[in-house]
Amino acid sequence: MRSPRIGARLGSGLAAALLVATGLAASAPTALAQAPASAYAGIVPAPVKVTPNASATFTITPATRIVVQPGREAADVGSYLGQLLRRPTGFALPVIPSAAPQANSVSLLLTGADPAVGEQGYQLDTTADRIVIRANKTAGLFAGVQTLRQLLPAAAESARTQPGPWTVPGGSVLDHPRFGYRGAHLDVARHFFPVETVKRYIDEIAAYKINTLHLHLTDDQGWRIEIKSWPKLATYGGSTQVGGGPGGYYTQEQYKEIIAHAASRQMTVIPEFDMPGHTNSALASYAELNCDGVAPPLRTDIAVGYSSLCINKDITYKFVDDVVREIAALTPGKYFHLGGDEAHATSEADYNTFMTKALPVLAKYGKTAMGWHEVAKAKPDVPTSTVIQFWDTKASNPAVTAAAARGNKILMSPANKAYLDMKYNAQSPLGLNWAGYIEVQDAYNWDPATYAQGVGESSVFGVEAPLWSETLKTLADIEYMAFPRLPAIAELGWAPASSHNWDAFKQRLAAQGPRWDAAGINYYKSPQVPWPTSNPGSCDNPAWESAKIYNGGTLVSHGNHEWRAKWWTRGEEPGSTGRWGVWEDLGACA
Ligand code: TNX
Q1: Residue 511 and residue 502: Cα distance in Å, rounded?
Q2: Separation between Cα atoms, residue 118 and residue 106, nearest integer Å
Q3: Closest Cα to residue 233, out of 261, 253, 252, 213?
Q4: Is residue 335 a contact partner of residue 368, using CB atoms and an 8 Å limit?
Q5: What is the pLDDT of residues 492-541, one digit of tens each?
Q6: Ligand 1 centroid – CA 246 distance (Å)
Q7: Which residues pair with 49 in a beta bridge?
Q8: Spatial separation of the C-alpha atoms in residues 248 and 223, rounded to whole Å
Q9: Fewest C-beta atoms under 10 Å: which of 103, 213, 419, 469?
Q10: 391: Cβ below 6 Å to ligand 1?
Q11: How close are the terminal C-alpha atoms of the chain, in Å?
């Protein structure tokens, strides 16, 4: 639940955030400035337009129903919403088909939306007796549900039943994205992550309206998916990872499971098979893929740029054809990423030959190519349908500028802004720093449509936040690097450019902290973000005083730790009664 203290903190940022987000600055500044602190001011990514209505509140009760537009599409979103809310509320929340909104319901309708919402947007209206989300497409209903989650108390993110009440403040949202593509990339090659970890990451990022998961499935250290016509790629090529250890791979059935899970979160999977470099795991698995016919050993270090497919052997293109054929058949999405980065062991002429032969294979199997920005240098020019992923750290990249001028779309993931594997600062326990340190404000403070020279708004395909896994081994590691920077990148992809404002954004980001606490997400508590004081690890709570009476649940600071009273107490110093005593030690302050 939002505590009064959190409300007070949001208060100052609220007016600014609302003024920007609603675009009503000139017409109604006084009313907005006086609006009470509202959950509408804390939504990430910022909606196009929010209109809080302080005189109404809807409360989800045991009698509340989820009403869905008849048909499978809205029903799927309705059952997802039910799954989200049944555990924390303990309510039944039955899903009922009906073409009209109902009293005491959350209604998800595919009719009557403002045309401005387009294919991915939605309209959400909360009045005293109902919540209605309207959209033109399922993706929009799903996005509206993500907004609704953020209007509920943070405890709604808990996996255990909580007391409530489950209030949603009155108001309206009209919302649609700036860019149609908002991606997250996950490197499962350097360290392998099991299906459950990938699914959980999908769930966590869907909350911020990310709609594409780019899976980096192969690299020097590991081949992570079964290819039936080349079985050793997975069984041998996937048998280790960075630092040694067993590695792993997805069976094709598991890959389908990931795709289906992503689809249930309105997310498309883009598979990446990085070629012609970054291929040691394949070269180690099949000697015939090497020019000298000798398989190199598997590698577990993090060097780059030493491996290359053998460009002048026919079998190389049989290999490419088989991999693309098998994976394209399992992949419903339109795009297929062929990597193409850091091919330092491939000559320029060979690189050109490879791209000229390999890119048509994607088209042959019905897919549109994506590649890292090195493909923009290939000659002859790659087709204009090829989406070029920009990962430079500087604005000037003549090949990318030229490709944009030819009509290629550019996917923006500048490494010094959007790379979630960069350390936050010199003390970060995880991550690399070749592109610099990226604090939350750095991740947020750039504009996808002005960052790269000659790549304006109309050339931008979207934004993506890559997460390379050289230093990451667990879900907790992934979460620590992604939160809170992934929501910052998601904001750049969704929110209108006119709402860009760090001071307002950091307030909205702060409102996510209690949600991540409730959900058990391991995030980096950046000192740049004014996290609400109820965050564990914060020393913003009042200092303990011996004369004061504390009720159970009260948070205090003492001895540079945060403490919670387990029950009524007075005069017992936190720490003095041991871990079985009255004060629970929530840990050293961040
Ligand atoms: C560069 S970015 C790479 C990856 C590394 C990453 C580490 C790109 C296209 N290639 O191979 O994992 O840096 O940050």
Answers
A1: 14
A2: 21
A3: 252
A4: yes
A5: 999 999 999 999 999 999 999 999 999 999 999 999 999 987 545 556 67
A6: 22
A7: 174
A8: 8
A9: 103
A10: yes
A11: 22
